[in-house]
Amino acid sequence: MSPAPRPSGTSPDPAEAPGSPGPARASAPTGEPARPASPEPAAASAASAGRPLAAHPASGWDRARFERTADELLLAVRPYASEGRAQIRLPGVPSHNGTWSDGLEGFARTFLLAAFRLAGAGGADPHHLAEWYADGIRAGADPSSPERWPTFAESNQAKVEAASLALALHETRPWIWDRLPERTREQVLAWLGAMVGDAMPGNNWIWFQAVTEAFARTAGGAWSEADLTRTVELTDTWYTGDGWYSDGLTGGAHRNHDHYNGWAMHFYPLWFCRILGDAAPDGLLDRYRARLRRFLDDARHLVGGNGSPLLQGRSLTYRFAALAPVWTGALFDATPLPPGQTRRLAGLMLGHFTGHGATDENGLLTLGWHRPFRPILQVYSGPASPYWASKGFAGLLLPPGHPVWTATEEPLPVERADFDRTLTAPGWLVSGTRADGVVRVANHGGDHADPARPHSDDPLYGRLGYGTHTAPETPGDPRGGPVDSSAVLVDDAGGASHRRPLERLSVAGRTAVSRSRAHWPDDERWDCFGGPDTTYRLGPWITVASVLRGPLEVRIARVDPAPETPEHPAHPGPFRLRLGGWALPRTPQDPAATTHQAPPTATVAGSGLHSTVVSLNGFDHAEVHEGTGSNALGPASATPALRTGGPPRWAHPYAAAVHLSGRPLTQAELPRLHLCANPATGAVEALVSWPDGVEDTVLLPAPAAPGCAPAAPCSAPAGARPAPLTPESTPATSESAPTAGATTPTSDAADAPAAAPTAKESAHDA
Q: Are the C-beta atoms of residues 418 and 510 closer than 8 Å to each other?
C-alpha cells in the first residue's frame, strides 16, 4: 500500500494549543533572517522516555558463539535437502532462475558456511559436515544423477554458485576435495571448466569466473590466462579511489556503489590471490590489500551503534554478508581496525540481525531484513539467496588464539564520538552521532542508473538519505512515487517526480550538490538495472544541496526550466515542490505524529528516534505521509514532509532542516541560513551558520540550459558573509518571476534568470 499524506493541521498550531506559549521568534539583525522556532514535542519526548534508544549494546560475541550460530544455520537447512544432498530446496517463492537453480544455490552457499566452520576448527567435525557435503558434491557433479547441478548454459546463476563451491573446496581440501573419488573430482572440474572463455557480465560476476578458474588451475582443471588477465584489468578500471569500486560501469560511468564493493569487489580478489598462492600475479596481493585497508577505514564509519550496516543498495537480504570485507581485512592483514574493534563490529552486526528476526521459527534465514520483506528483493532473489550471508562467518578461519578473538573489544567510531566524513568516491556525506549511535548518509553520487536516459527511482539507490537506523520506503505499489528523503515535484494528480539519473555537481567537506531532471514514468516499477521500457514525461531541473552536520541536514532545492526533448513528452504541470524527511517505523505505542505551521514543521517519532523537517525558507505546509507494508523495519511507518502551497518559483532557493536523532529537535539546534544570488550567473550561494559558530557555504549553480544562466560562484569576496537576497516587489506569480509549471511569457524577460527572492521572504521562513 503506497504511503498516503495526512493533511497539515491535524494537530493544533502551538500558538493556539492550550497551555502552549507558541513558537517564539527571535529578532533578526538588519539583513539577517531570523532562526525559526521549533516547537518542543514534549509529549513525544515523554512518551519515548520509557523506551530509550540503545546506542551502545554489549556485544557478547566470542568465537564459540559464532561457531554455535554457524552450526544452527547449517543444521536448520538439512531437512530441505534432496535425497542425495546435492540440492537444498528451501520453502518460499522461487527466484526467476527457477527451483533447480535455487536448489544449487542452497547447496553452494551453505557449503561455503560449512567450509569456514570446518576449516576454522582444523577439521574437527562434530556434525559430519565433510561427509554431508561430500555426498552432495558426488550427486551434483555426476551428469547422470537425477540431482545433477544445472550447467552454466542451463542456468546463468550457476556461475555465481560455482565461485562459492570453488572457495569452499579450496578451504576444505584436506577433508573433502582430497578424499573425493577421482571420478568425482574429474566431474567437478568438467562442470567448472565450462566457465573458461565465458563472456561474463561486466560487474562483480567476472570474479566468479576468476575464482573458479583459479581453483581449477590448482586442481589440474581448465583455466584461461586471458580470463584471469581480463578480470584483473577490468577491476582496475572500476576502481574509483579511496578504497572504493564501482560494481562495473553504468553508461560508462562509476555509478554503482553499494555493498558489492565490500562483499564482492574486495572479497574475491584477495581470495583469488589466496587460492593461487605464489602463482598470483606479482604485486597483486599487495595492491588489493592496500585498497581494502583504505576502504575499511570508511566502512567502519558506516556501521551504526546498533550494529546495523547501511540500509542502501541491492541484495540487502544478504544482511551480515556486510562483514565479508571486515573478516577479509583481518585474514589478510589488510585492515586499519584494531583486533578488538573487528570483533565488536562483527558481533554487533551478527547480533543485530539474529536479535531482530532474521531467522524464522525453523531457523532459516528469511528473505528480508529484520523480517520477511519482499519489496527490497530483486528478481534473482530466491529462498536460499540470504545464505550469501555465509561470508559473515569467514572470520572463523582465524585461529582461536588470534588477537581478534582474544583482545578486549574496542568501540566503533560512532561509539567513540560524533563524526562527519566525506566519501568522494560514492558521493556521500556521512554523519555519526554518539548519543544515539545513528549513522546517516546524504547521497549525491552514484544511483546505479545510466545517465543517458531517465529511470524510475529505485528506493535503494535514488533517495537523498540512507541510514543505519532507517529504511527507505519501498511500497508494494510504486505509484505513490518518492516521499522519504527526497526533493520532488508533485503534479495535480499527486504524482511525484523521479530523480534517477542524478548528476553530481560537488562533494566537499560537509556539503554536496546534485541535479536531476524531474520526470514522471508511465510505468513506475523500479529495477536497479534500468527498469521497464516506458514513456517518461519530462519536467524542470531540480538542483539539491545538502549540508550535513551531526543529526541535522540543511537541504536546499531550486527548480529551473528545462528544454523540451523529442524523445519524451513534456509534463505541463502545474507542480508543487515537496521535501521529505526520514521515514521511521511506527507502532501503536509511539507518540502521534505532529504538524505545525509557524514555521511549517512535521515530526514523526518511532523506534526511539525522532524525524523532523522544519522550513527554513519558502515552504508553506507541513504534512505526514503514512505507509503500510512499505518499510523493511516494520509493518507501519511514517514520513514527515513539507510542500509549497503553489508552484515553486524558478531559481528560488527552498530550504529546510532535516533532523534524525534519538531526541527531539530543539530551537537551539537550528542553524541560521543566509542566501545570496548572483544576478549575472543565476547561482545561489547559501551560508549555513551553526549555533556553535561553525559555518558552511554551498553553491547551487543554475543549469547550463535555455532560460538559465551558466553556473559561476557568487561575487562575494572569499570568506565574506553573503549579502541577503535583494528585495523585489513583484508577486511570486507575476510574469517577471515565472513559476514551475506556469506558461513562460514570450518576452525578453522570459529568457533571463527569474528575479531573486526577497529578503523579506527569506526572513519570513528562515
A: no
CB 388 within 8 A of CB 315: yes
Claim to verify: residue 554 and residue 575 sit in the same structural domain:
yes
The C-alpha atoms of residue 123 and residue 59 are separated, in whole angstroms, by 28
What does the longest C-alpha to C-alpha distance in the chain come to?
89
- The answer to whether residue 423 is domain-embedded is yes
Phi/psi of residue 604, nearest 5 degrees: -125, 135
Pairwise CA distance, residues 552 & 611, whole Å: 10
Dist CA 554 CA 559 (whole Å): 17
Rounded to 5°, the CA angle 11-28-509 comes to: 85
Last residue of a domain, one of 415, 431, 457: 415
Same domain, 321 and 220: yes
What gap in Å lies between CA 458 and CA 477, rounded to an integer?
13
Q: How far apart are CA 544 and CA 463, in angstroms?
A: 12
Segments forming the whole domain that contains residue 586: 417-706+730-765
Name which of 440, 504, 491 is nearest 469 in CA terms: 440
C-alpha span between 293 and 274 (Å, rounded): 17
**Residue at 37: amino acid letter:** A
Beta partners for 659?
Answer: 552, 612
Count helices and strands (H / E) in the chain: 16, 23
For residue 627, the model assigns a pLDDT of 95
The pLDDT assigned to 456 comes to: 83
Cell numbers 568501540 label which residue? 411
Residues 189, 212: Cα–Cα separation, whole Å: 10
3-class SS at 542?
Answer: strand
> Is residue 657 classed as helix, strand or coil in its secondary structure?
strand
CB 410 within 8 A of CB 338: yes
State how far the alpha carbon of 527 is from the alpha carbons of 3, 27, 248, 259, 729, in Å: 20, 49, 16, 17, 47
pTM: 0.87
638 DSSP β-pair partners: 584, 626
Name the nearest CA neighbour of 454 among 534, 547, 377.
534
Alpha-carbon radius of gyration of the chain: 27
Indicate if 282 and 408 belong to the same structural domain.
yes
- Reported as a single tens digit per residue, the pLDDT across 201-258 is 999 999 999 999 999 999 999 999 999 999 999 999 999 999 999 999 988 889 899 9
Q: Closest Cα to residue 538, out of 521, 556, 558, 515?
A: 521
Name the strand (E) or helix (H) holding 299.
Answer: helix 284-299
Q: Is residue 304 part of a domain?
A: yes
Task: State whether 354 and 443 are in the same domain.
Answer: no
Query: What is the mean pLDDT of the segment spanning 119-146?
Result: 99
Name the helix (H) or strand (E) containing 275: helix 267-276
- Class of residue 93 by CB neighbours under 10 A (exposed 0-12, middle 13-18, buried 19+): exposed
Q: Which H/E stretch holds residue 166?
A: helix 157-171
Burial of 618 (0-12, 13-18, 19+ CB in 10 A): buried
Q: Phi then psi for 421, rounded to 5 degrees?
A: -145, 140
Instruction: Please name the residues in contact with 652: beta carbons below 8 A apart, sequence gap of 6 or more.
Output: 558, 559, 618, 732, 754, 757
